[in-house]
Design brief:
Length: 81
């Protein structure tokens, strides 16, 4: 599936791609950042052909902008069979 997360900075700041961290929130948590690193750009994570098994997958994405302001989002990917 095509998987895309978009980021938006404010006040003239830019997203710092090196600050992006993506974590699969299972027990124990799994850092997915290295797996998607080549798909991280200034404004998005864009994975054209992600392989995601069926089920509910809680994900946290953390990011900082060029002014050092941090933001994060937690959401659940729900993939049907």
């Amino acid at each position: 599936m095509h998987l895309e997360f978009r980021f938006e900075a404010h006040g003239g700041a830019k997203i710092d791609p090196a600050s992006v961290k993506i974590t699969y929130l299972k027990n124990p948590a799994v850092d997915l950042t290295e797996r998607v690193k080549s798909f991280i750009g200034r404004g998005a994570i864009d994975v054209p052909a992600a392989e995601v098994p069926p089920g509910n997958h809680p994900i946290r994405v953390e990011v900082k902008d060029s002014e050092g302001r941090a933001g994060s989002a937690i959401f659940t990917l729900r993939i049907s069979q």
